[in-house]
C-alpha cells in the first residue's frame, strides 16, 4: 500500500476507535423501570432495652467482695419490633425486626423497597414493639434509653406517586414519628 | 497440550489478523496492539497529571456543583475532564488488549505467573479507582454506582447496618463520605504504582513507555476528542427519582445492568468464579511435563564468566556466582578451558527462566541454553542436514521463529525457500548462519517476530546487534552480510514474509550475476586507451 493512503486509512481508523471510545463512555443505559415508582422504607434507631431486674439480698451481697457488690442486677436484651406494611389492603410485609450484632444490641434498622405503579395508593405502615409488656422487666421504663424508638410507630396515608418517583418512608427523630418524603 | 490451548487458538487468529492490519497501517514500530502495555502506562500518567489539576477544583461539600462549574469552563476544565475520562477508559482497553495478547501467546505461566496475577490485581485496582472517580461527580451514574456497590457490600456478613441507606434519601449524604471517596480515589494510584513495580519486577530493562511518536499520538487523539466532543454533565443524583436513562461509562459500568437484576450473592459468586478463573490461567496454561520447554542450563566447563548471558537474559534469570573450587576428591578437570578458568560461573535460576533460549545465542563458547536448543545443538542440526541431500544452490534458507511466521512455512517453501524453524530469533547462534552459508546456501533469511511482539521479549533486538553491531557472539566479519537478512513478520503476515523472501532472492541473484552480459566481450567494453611512447627521464 502506498504511503499516503496508508496514512489516511491509519488516521481514520485511529479517529474512529477514539470516537467509539468516547461514545461508549457516555452511552445512555435504560433503567428498565418504565413509569413505575418505588416505595422505600428506610430508618434505624436504638431499640428499647428489655430487662428483668432483681434486688440482691444482704446475704448475697456479703458473699462477694466489697467492690463487686451491686444492689440491683439486671439481665436483658434489646426489644424486637414487628413491621407490618399494607398497601391497598394487602399485606406487603409482616415480619419481626431485631437489632444487629451477635448480641442483637446494635441499632435496629429497616431497609426495604417495593416497586409501585403510579397513582393513588392506600399505605399503612406499623412498627411496634413485639415483646409483650409482661415480659418487660420492672425497671424497663426507667432504664429505657431516652433516644430509643417509640414503642409504636404508625403511618396511614394515601400515596399519590408520580411516575418514576420514590416514596420514602422514614423515621423523623425530632417528631418521633414516621414521615413520608417524595418528589 | 495445556487446558487453555483451544481458547488460545481461538483468540490468536483474530489477534494475528488485527496485528497484520495495524502493521500495514502504522508499521510494527507504532503498532498500538504491540504497545498495549506501555500505552496503558502512559494513560495512567495522563490520569495522574489531569487528576491533580481536576483536584484543585473539586469541593467535597458540593461535589456535583463543583464538577458542573468545571465542566462549564471550556478553557481550564472541560477538556481536561474529558481527557481524564477518556484516558481512564482507554487504559482499561489497553490493559484488556495486553492481557489478551499474553493469554493468546501463552505468556502467562511459569515465571510469568507473577506478572499475570499482578496485572489482574492492577486492573482491579484501576476499576475500583475509576468507580470512586465516577462517584465523586455524584450525578445519576455516580449515584447508581454507589447504590449498587453498597448493595453488594451489604450482602457481606460483616456490616451490622446496610450502607445503602446512606444513599437513599433518608438524609443528605455526609461530606465525610465524599472526603473518604476522594481519599480513596487519590490514594489508589499509589497502589497502582506499587502494582506496576511488581508487574515488571521480573523483567530486565522493562519497557514502560511506547515510542514517542505513538505516545503523543495517543495523548493527542484523546485530547482532540475531549475538545471536539466535550463531556456534558448528567443530572445531579436524586435518590427520590428513578431516572429513565443514565449516561453510562460502559467501561466502568458494564456490570451494572447485569448486577442489578441478580441477587447480590450470585453477583459475588460470579465475580469470584471469574477472578479465580483468571488467576488460575497460569496453572491452566502450563503445558504438561512432556511438552514443557526445559529451562536453560550452564555447562561450567565451557563458561568463561564473560557476563554476556547475564546481560542479555530478558528475565534476569542468570547470575554469576563463585565457581566451586575443586577439591582433592574432585574429578580431574579435562575441559578445553580447564586451565586459567574464571573464578565465577553463570548460574540459571530455573524459576525465572522462560526457556526463550536467548542466552544460547549470546554465548560465544556455546556453554548455555535450554536442552536441545543450545548453540551446539543448533550446529549439530545444521551438520545433520548437511549430511543429507544437498539443497539446490538457489534455495535460500529461511529461519523462522516458531512463535511467529512458522505456520507460514509452506507458503515460503512454495516460493523457493528451504524453511527451518527456531524457538526465537534471539536463540539463533550466529555460527549457525555462517555454517549454513558455508554448506552452500546462497543466503539466509531470518524471519523474526516484530521486536515489540517477541515471545522472549528481546530476541530480534539482540539478533540484530549480534549481526550488525558486533555484540558478543557476533557474526564473524568473514561472513558476507549481503547474504544474510533479517525481516520481521507476524503470524498472519504471509504475504509480507513471501515479499521479503522474493526481494532477498532478487538481491542474491544480482549478487551472483556476472558483472557483464555474456555476449559482451571485454574488448568491446573496455576500449584500449591510445598508447604513446613516453620518454622517461634518466
Question: Could you characterize the architecture of this molecule?
Answer:
- With 183 residues, chain A is an alpha+beta fold.
- Chain A has a domain of 116 residues: Immunoglobulin-like.
- Chain A is built from three helices and eleven strands; from the N terminus they run αβββαβββββαβββ.
- In chain A, β10 and β11 form a beta hairpin.
- The longest helix of chain A is centred in the first third of the chain and has 22 residues.
- The termini of chain A are far apart.
- The model of chain A has no long low-confidence stretch (mean pLDDT 86).
- Chain B has 538 residues and is α/β, with parallel strands linked by helices.
- Chain B folds into two domains: 254 residues, Cytochrome Bc1 Complex, Chain C (Up-down Bundle); 205 residues, no CATH class.
- Chain B is built from 19 helices and nine strands.
- In chain B, the strands form three sheets. In chain B, strands 7-6-8-9 form a four-stranded parallel beta sheet, sandwiched between helices.
- In chain B, β8, α17 and β9 form a beta-alpha-beta unit.
- The radius of gyration of chain B is 31 Å and the shape is elongated.
- Chains A and B meet through α1, β1, β2 and β10 of A and α1, α4, α8, β1 and α9 of B.
- β1 of chain A pairs antiparallel with β1 of chain B, so a sheet runs across the interface.
- Number of helical stretches of at least 4 residues of chain B: 19
SSE pattern of chain A, N- to C-terminal: HEEEHEEEEEHEEE
Termini of chain A, distance in Å? 62 Å
Secondary structure tally: strands of chain B: 9
Q: Give the neighbour order of strands across the main sheet of chain A.
A: 7-2-10-11
Give the helix level of chain A as a range of percent.
Answer: 10-25%
What is the overall pLDDT average of chain B? 90
What is the percent of helical residues of chain B?
40-55%
Q: List the strand order in the largest sheet of chain B.
A: 7-6-8-9
Q: Kindly provide the name of the CATH class of the largest domain in chain B.
A: Mainly Alpha
Percent strand of chain B: 5-15%
Label the overall shape of chain A. Answer: elongated
Main β-sheet of chain B: number of strands, strand sense, barrel status? 4 strands, parallel
**CATH architecture term of the domain at 37-48 and 78-181 in chain A:** Sandwich
CATH topology of the domain at 37-48 and 78-181 in chain A: Immunoglobulin-like
Q: What structural class do the secondary elements of chain A suggest?
A: alpha+beta
The proportion of strand residues of chain A reads over 45%
Amino acid at each position: 500500500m502506498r504511503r499516503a493512503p496508508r496514512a489516511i486509512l491509519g488516521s481514520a481508523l485511529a479517529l474512529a476507535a477514539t470516537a467509539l471510545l468516547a461514545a461508549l463512555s457516555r452511552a445512555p443505559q435504560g433503567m428498565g423501570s418504565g413509569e413505575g415508582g418505588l416505595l422505600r422504607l428506610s430508618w434505624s434507631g436504638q431499640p428499647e432495652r428489655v430487662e428483668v431486674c432483681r434486688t440482691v439480698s444482704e446475704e448475697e451481697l456479703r458473699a462477694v467482695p466489697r467492690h463487686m457488690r451491686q444492689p440491683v442486677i439486671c439481665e436483658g436484651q434489646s426489644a424486637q419490633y414487628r413491621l407490618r406494611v399494607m398497601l391497598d389492603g394487602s399485606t406487603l410485609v409482616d415480619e419481626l425486626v431485631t437489632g444487629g450484632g451477635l448480641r442483637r444490641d446494635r441499632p435496629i434498622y429497616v431497609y426495604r423497597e417495593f416497586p409501585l405503579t403510579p397513582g393513588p395508593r392506600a399505605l399503612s405502615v406499623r412498627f411496634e414493639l413485639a415483646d409483650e409488656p409482661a415480659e418487660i422487666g420492672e425497671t424497663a421504663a426507667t432504664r429505657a434509653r431516652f433516644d430509643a424508638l417509640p414503642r409504636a410507630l404508625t403511618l396511614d396515608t394515601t400515596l399519590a406517586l408520580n411516575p418514576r418517583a420514590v416514596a420514602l418512608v422514614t423515621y423523623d427523630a425530632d417528631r418521633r414519628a414516621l414521615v413520608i418524603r417524595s418528589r | 497440550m495445556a487446558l487453555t490451548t483451544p481458547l488460545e487458538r481461538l483468540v490468536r487468529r483474530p489477534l494475528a489478523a488485527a496485528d497484520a492490519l495495524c502493521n500495514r497501517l502504522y508499521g510494527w514500530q507504532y503498532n498500538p496492539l504491540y504497545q498495549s502495555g506501555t500505552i496503558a502506562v502512559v494513560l495512567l500518567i495522563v490520569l495522574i497529571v489531569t487528576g491533580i489539576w481536576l483536584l484543585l477544583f473539586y469541593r467535597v461539600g458540593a461535589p456535583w456543583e463543583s464538577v458542573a462549574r468545571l465542566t462549564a469552563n471550556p478553557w481550564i476544565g472541560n477538556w481536561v475532564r474529558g481527557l481524564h475520562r477518556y484516558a481512564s477508559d482507554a487504559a482499561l482497553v489497553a490493559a484488556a488488549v495486553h492481557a489478551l495478547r499474553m493469554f493468546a501467546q501463552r505468556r502467562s505461566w511459569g515465571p510469568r505467573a507473577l506478572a499475570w496475577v499482578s496485572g489482574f490485581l492492577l486492573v482491579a485496582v484501576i476499576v475500583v479507582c475509576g468507580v470512586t472517580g465516577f462517584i465523586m461527580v455524584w450525578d445519576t451514574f455516580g449515584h447508581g454506582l454507589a447504590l449498587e456497590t453498597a448493595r453488594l457490600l451489604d450482602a457481606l456478613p460483616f456490616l451490622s447496618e446496610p450502607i445503602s441507606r446512606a444513599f437513599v434519601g433518608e438524609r443528605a449524604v455526609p461530606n465525610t463520605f465524599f472526603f473518604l471517596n476522594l481519599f480513596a480515589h487519590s490514594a489508589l494510584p499509589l497502589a497502582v504504582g506499587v502494582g506496576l513495580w511488581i508487574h515488571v519486577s521480573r523483567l530486565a530493562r522493562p519497557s514502560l513507555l511506547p515510542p514517542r511518536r505513538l505516545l503523543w499520538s495517543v495523548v493527542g487523539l484523546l485530547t482532540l476528542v475531549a475538545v471536539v466532543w466535550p463531556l456534558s454533565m448528567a443530572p445531579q443524583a436524586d435518590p427520590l427519582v428513578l431516572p429513565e436513562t443514565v449516561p453510562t461509562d460502559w467501561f466502568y459500568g458494564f456490570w451494572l445492568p447485569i448486577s442489578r437484576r441478580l441477587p447480590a450473592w450470585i453477583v459475588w459468586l460470579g465475580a469470584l468464579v471469574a477472578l479465580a478463573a483468571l488467576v488460575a490461567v497460569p496453572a491452566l496454561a502450563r503445558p504438561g511435563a512432556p511438552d514443557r520447554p526445559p529451562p536453560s542450563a550452564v555447562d561450567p566447563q565451557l563458561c568463561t564468566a564473560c557476563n554476556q548471558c547475564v546481560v542479555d537474559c530478558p528475565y534476569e534469570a542468570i547470575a554469576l556466582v563463585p565457581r566451586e573450587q575443586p577439591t582433592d576428591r574432585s574429578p580431574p578437570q579435562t575441559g578445553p578451558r580447564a586451565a586459567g578458568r574464571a573464578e565465577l560461573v553463570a548460574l540459571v535460576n530455573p524459576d525465572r527462566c522462560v526457556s526463550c533460549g536467548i542466552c544460547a545465542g549470546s554465548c560465544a563458547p556455546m556453554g548455555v541454553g535450554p536442552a536441545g536448543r543450545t548453540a551446539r545443538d543448533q550446529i549439530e542440526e545444521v551438520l545433520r542436514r548437511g549430511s543429507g541431500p544437498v539443497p539446490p544452490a538457489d534455495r535460500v534458507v529461511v529461519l523462522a521463529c516458531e512463535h511467529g511466521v512458522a505456520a507460514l512455512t509452506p507458503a515460503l517453501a512454495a516460493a523457493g525457500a528451504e524453511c527451518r524453524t527456531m524457538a526465537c530469533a534471539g536463540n539463533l547462534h550466529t555460527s549457525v548462519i555462517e555454517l549454513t552459508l558455508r554448506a552452500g546456501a546462497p543466503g539466509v533469511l531470518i524471519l523474526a517476530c516484530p521486536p515489540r511482539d517477541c515471545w522472549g521479549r528481546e530476541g530480534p533486538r539482540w539478533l540484530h546487534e549480534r549481526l550488525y553491531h558486533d555484540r558478543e557472539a557476533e557474526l564473524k566479519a568473514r561472513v558476507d552480510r549481503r547474504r544474510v537478512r533479517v525481516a520481521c513478520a507476524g503470524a498472519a503476515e504471509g504475504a509480507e514474509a513471501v515479499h521479503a523472501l522474493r526481494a532477498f532472492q532478487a538481491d542474491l541473484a544480482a549478487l551472483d550475476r556476472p558483472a557483464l552480459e555474456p555476449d559482451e566481450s571485454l574488448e568491446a567494453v573496455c576500449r584500449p586507451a591510445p598508447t604513446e611512447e613516453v620518454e622517461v627521464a634518466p
